[in-house]
Amino acid sequence: MKELLETLVRESRALAPGGACASYIPALAAVDPGLVGLALADGEGHLFEAGDSRVRFSIQSVSKAFALAYVLEERGEDAVFSRVGKEPTGDPFNSIIRLETSRLGKPYNPMINAGAIVVASLLPEAVAGSGGASEPSARAAGLRSFVGRACGRGSGDAVTSDETVYASERGTANRNRSIAWFLKELGLLDGDVEESLEAYFLQCSMLLDAADLARAGSLLAYDGVAPWSGERLLAVRTARIVKSLMATCGLYDGSGEFGVDAGLPAKSGVGGGILAAAKRRCGIGSFGPALDPRGNSVAGTHMLKRLSAELDLFAL
Ligand code: GLN
């Protein structure tokens, strides 16, 4: 297995210059576009890795899958889906247009920015240890500890957010601000708009590595039971909802093409990460910050397509 992963990393290093790092969040443009990492976590809790699988990066939109799982567990389906739909858009991840033109009256799904900002507004505050923290910080802290558990991190290895990336996005987020204020106008955001945005930027700047994403993918692949401990961390229904929306919307307007070629539920982020789940087989985490025009990792999509073909992981 390790050899296969090494081969795919080698192939992808040759492809990486075919894309460029995201630059609309200025701090992301400073990341080395040649980094490539791949990790696979199997059903027995084993981890296989190659390349830069332990380089931490900001997970950006991969956080949308974690936040959705957490809010579904904490608040239930109605709280989420009364305010966000379950349908793909075929539009870019940061598109605003359908908020006004659609009769749905809410964002199409939780994997685009509009839907994810609504989900971030529903994040519960961390119960303990947040004394004195601002509301968005307390909400992000709750999500970070959930993400730590979902990635099988030890209690001493807490998930952190990248302050530079956070500040960089916060200072340049005119489009997300526009989306959030429009959501407020539609009655979909309770409370302070800036606080919901803060929670969203904090979740996007969480730092994980490909090995973390692989373990979290294996948690989804086994419908909420952690293969490394046998413990149930998510309801079956939660895992299935998240995977279904990953399959249809996880790579935005590239979801259909990726589905045809890789056949896996997956979630990408403009930090270069992708998390994928192969039902009752394994979780896969990839990292490669050079992106295609839709904002998906060039190396990551290549490696996942190849891995799915090599190991026959097609779920669809
Ligand atoms: N934080 C990014 C944004 O809101 C996340 C986008 C992404 O990863 N596709 O624009």
Description of the molecule:
The protein is of the alpha+beta class and 316 residues long. Helix content is 46%, strand content 9%. It folds into 2 domains: 162 residues, 3-Layer(aba) Sandwich (Beta-lactamase), CATH 3.40.710; 144 residues, 3-Layer(aba) Sandwich (Beta-lactamase). The protein is built from 13 helices and 7 strands. A hairpin with a 3-residue loop joins strand 6 and strand 7. The chain is globular. Bound molecules: glutamine (GLN). Glutamine binds next to loops.
Question: In terms of topology, how is this protein built?
Answer:
Layout: H1 2-15, E1 37-42, E2 47-51, E3 57-58, H2 63-75, H3 77-81, H4 97-101, H5 113-121, H6 135-150, H7 163-172, H8 174-185, H9 193-204, E4 207-208, H10 210-221, H11 236-249, H12 255-262, E5 266-268, E6 273-278, E7 282-287, H13 298-311
Antiparallel strand pairs: 1-2, 1-7, 3-4, 5-6, 6-7
The structure holds glutamine (GLN).
